[in-house]
């Protein structure tokens, strides 16, 4: 049947941020924290044995990056741009394409960042 396989893996971490460019009265201008969830989605033109887009285990470097760089940090100190969900998703996608994707059979489709249970922002890569 025509179609395309995609896989996803979700990583979680705790971090603080503020968005100082917002008006003073905006709740997100104040320093506050979130339990973040980040989902990486990959695809591939064909499966590799035993039938994987990419072994979920090969995404371990993402957990390593998150644990060492984002978890229990102030995201304003990590990103050079405002730490919105949109900017964080693009930052993670760019890092993944440079450092992890070259050694994988699959390729990154999107990164979705959730700050809360009811909101998310996604960076979708152009077809490459
Ligand atoms: N497009 C975006 N909008 C907002 C972002 C963002 O990254 N991208 N971020 C924030 C704040 O960080 C805020 O902490 C989260 O906003 P919000 O979902 O409004 O949080 P609440 O806890 O108030 O959500 P409720 O479900 O309404 O309780 C703001 N906007
Ligand atoms: Zn926030």
From TrEMBL:
<protein>
    <recommendedName>
        <fullName>6-carboxy-5,6,7,8-tetrahydropterin synthase</fullName>
        <ecNumber>4.-.-.-</ecNumber>
    </recommendedName>
</protein>
<feature type="binding site">
    <location>
        <position position="34"/>
    </location>
    <ligand>
        <name>Zn(2+)</name>
    </ligand>
</feature>
<dbReference type="InterPro" id="IPR007115">
    <property type="entry name" value="6-PTP_synth/QueD"/>
</dbReference>
<keyword id="KW-0479">Metal-binding</keyword>
<feature type="binding site">
    <location>
        <position position="32"/>
    </location>
    <ligand>
        <name>Zn(2+)</name>
    </ligand>
</feature>
<feature type="binding site">
    <location>
        <position position="17"/>
    </location>
    <ligand>
        <name>Zn(2+)</name>
    </ligand>
</feature>
<dbReference type="GO" id="GO:0008616">
    <property type="term" value="P:tRNA queuosine(34) biosynthetic process"/>
</dbReference>
<dbReference type="Pfam" id="PF01242">
    <property type="entry name" value="PTPS"/>
</dbReference>
<comment type="pathway">
    <text>Purine metabolism; 7-cyano-7-deazaguanine biosynthesis.</text>
</comment>
<feature type="active site" description="Charge relay system">
    <location>
        <position position="72"/>
    </location>
</feature>
<keyword id="KW-0671">Queuosine biosynthesis</keyword>
<keyword id="KW-0862">Zinc</keyword>
<keyword id="KW-0456">Lyase</keyword>
<dbReference type="GO" id="GO:0070497">
    <property type="term" value="F:6-carboxytetrahydropterin synthase activity"/>
</dbReference>
<feature type="active site" description="Charge relay system">
    <location>
        <position position="115"/>
    </location>
</feature>
<dbReference type="GO" id="GO:0046872">
    <property type="term" value="F:metal ion binding"/>
</dbReference>
<feature type="active site" description="Proton acceptor">
    <location>
        <position position="28"/>
    </location>
</feature>
<dbReference type="InterPro" id="IPR038418">
    <property type="entry name" value="6-PTP_synth/QueD_sf"/>
</dbReference>
<comment type="similarity">
    <text>Belongs to the PTPS family. QueD subfamily.</text>
</comment>
